[in-house]
């Protein structure tokens, strides 16, 4: 059976290795600034060889049958999939493993688990696909330690993975929170439906995880976050089960769902949701436009975002990012894609081309009828493979990471300049050089969601400390320039200090009070969202 | 200077009177079931003649300059604009007037007012345009009485009515919460922008009121609620000012704005918001389609709602409602309108016509290039005038009201049947007959927002008791059939008992805790949202 990597991204068998890894090492060594890499390749230890501390707790008999204290289970639930997780896993540095991993297969199991955790002072970390890149599922509490808990249980929800009901009239489906992307799509396909929520982590993240972290998906406009596809949610909290009505819209008080969306496991565990699903796409049209500069591409993108043409894809790539789409002349790209299950979209694409041309862009390939071809297709494949490449670079001793934000169109040029300058300075000081590239993942009428990729030569053994400095420079620059610490990667533990600075303090106080009402023992994902 | 009606809808000079009123009375008397109306016309007392109880409190000198204890001010801030408000005003039944009306003209005034209210145990009712139809701004507290407060101040925010800043790059504007619809549109027009939020109450409601009640506006799809046009908000709470960042999107924790949207003055007073504004519309296309039954029209409407054509208008009218659009053969109507500031919308309208035809509809007038003409235009004018007509009917002793909901497409046929049956039965028992009609105001891929209008012959002096019974029948039927007690009229005091039944109880507990954190003295709009 195919196995998930305990230390890195995705499938074990997809990790870059052998000749591919050697080729990457050789290519990287030729890049300016990267000449002094030591040529070593870090290899992950086997989880069986990890000297994990002994479990401090034991589950009561009623729960014990659904739990494991095995090394592989505990090691693979200790860390997320961020750069800093991979570095630590490669070093065998797993200092805060969960004491137990629970595998509930029914909602009753979840209720029992939370009851036990609350009564026994055991921290409960909801775990979906484990793809957090912000320390969201890591048992690391106050001051980076264990907190005052008797122990920690990681609650792996992937046993709750069924599409329970499909409403073909309202085009909605009731889906369990632990369903991984491909697992729920497979079940929806039997009804000719799709959720069409495709974050980069699609294969390795769950519906509940998407909802808990306000995941950003396939749609570049309108339905950018998973939030917009929710009809109702069912959440197990220590104070009882919170289930909202199936309503397409409501004006009855503040939205109950919006309290739990983005709560990152701190308020409850999402066991089910009614989701708006989509008919399968029949019509597509896409445009790959080139621009002399990033700002030219951004201006055209703004015009499209403000046009109400509602493209499904609307992605800007700067000159550096464009190379992965096969464009190597330094041009910035704007990839615009339309799709519909109902009607041809060529007219919309034609108007997008007009807007591109008005803003100084060229469209060498014209309008394509499928968005899976051309530069967009090349870029898409590279997008899905990127985290495996990130792991390969990490093993070579490189510091590599991505971070994302959102800001107004008015703020973007300055934010881009300030973030680039701050990172360039930090990389120079800490790593002796490096590169930073930028793309837009989603766009709104009032602003884009810029996404940055940084890559710098690391020093073996100092990668984490180097990363910490780059991350601090990035976070501070983002906030100073008017952005958010995250558009769709979530807050977790790694973003908390910036999150706490950016949110309104009265709101933080309200949220803390709400948390105390729902989780009086404070056992749910401690330190996340409510600090 | 033109004056607002203290007792009824809108402008004093627009109230139906004289020959028009007599004509309505004559026409109504011919309708089956309405033959026994007494022919009397109730006339509102002058506010100067009302024997309002003496103010129980006096504002401290620093605040006193911005307050009034005058009869007209107090009377016109005592009641909203629902049927039951008009009946009571006509009877001079103003038993719970605010002791004072405050007219802050700066945010500092608002802060001072809330500080005073919290320290002196004075209930504070935020008042925008006063168009609530759910008892949202009425000083009626525990058990319909005065509660344990020393007094009540109604805080009229219409002095904070400026567009403070316009960002022409991000297409957003910073607007004060007290700006009435026409006041903010006039200021935006100077920049060639429009908010395009046009609830029926547009002239008599404010931005802050829209945000606090999750108002439903112009757009029938996508941006149905004002929520969807918000970039950031600034809210004065007793625990401090909560200001969210200007972000087009964010995934950093639960949305701060979504906590205050729909809070109806119970958590704070919205003094400013950055709103996404629109370019002025250049292209329009509209379609008026006829169907043999409501369910046929609903099916076509569903197809359009699920097509992602994103019409601006997408309104179903049953045979009864269609008469106000000049269609008197019993046909149900579907009015579909597209608009754009950027591109022609004829292709979209053509596809809508195909979907109409596929579902058994006819389009006798074809596609019109302006949505202000034809049946849609006739209906629109009648829509704006409707509340004045409601006041006229009320004066004639009729029981007349509207209520709205949302449900899934799968639930709609049953909800419509159950609500119609429950109301018909209640009207028969309580009023000896009456009529009920239905339209859709907004539609979603997963369901419509049905809006019902009821009209029954009342008994002079018993109109309120009759209304209570009809309202109870309606609310119970809506909830039993899977709907929400409100899609955009809000909760206020009149909907609270159903709201409390429909929301998840853990969420209610969380909200109560959040309220206590923000308003520890419990002075903000007591009894609303947090019961």
Task: Report what the structure shows.
The structure is a homodimer of 531-residue chains. The first copy, chain A, is of the alpha+beta class. Helices cover 33% and strands 20% of the residues of chain A. Chain A has helices at residues 18-29, 61-64, 71-76, 83-90, 107-120, 181-189, 207-213, 256-260, 294-305, 319-322, 346-358, 374-395, 412-431, 463-480, 496-502, 505-518; strands at 67-68, 100-102, 122-127, 151-156, 163-167, 172-176, 193-194, 230-237, 240-243, 269-276, 278-279, 283-291, 313-317, 332-340, 367-368, 398-404, 435-444, 447-457. Chain A has a 5-stranded antiparallel beta sheet with strand order 5-6-10-8-9. Chain A has a 4-stranded mixed beta sheet with strand order 1-2-4-3, with helices on one face. In chain A, a hairpin with a 2-residue loop joins strand 17 (435-444) and strand 18. In chain A, helix 9 packs across helix 11. Chain A starts with 17 loop residues before the first helix and ends in a 13-residue tail after the last helix. Chains A and B meet through strand 8, strand 9, helix 8, strand 18 and helix 16 of A and strand 8, strand 9, helix 8, strand 18 and helix 16 of B.
What general form of chain A does the structure show? globular
How are strands sequenced across the largest beta sheet of chain A? 5-6-10-8-9
Largest sheet of chain A: 5 strands, antiparallel
Overall average residue pLDDT of chain A: 95
What fraction of residues of chain A sit in β-strands? Answer: 15-25%
Of all chain pairs, the largest interface belongs to: A-B, 98 and 98 residues
Structural class estimated from helices and strands of chain A: alpha+beta
What is the radius of gyration of chain A?
A: 23 Å
The quaternary organization reads as homodimer
Stretches of chain A where pLDDT falls below 50 for ≥5 residues?
A: none
Number of helical elements of chain A: 16
- Share of helical residues of chain A: 25-40%
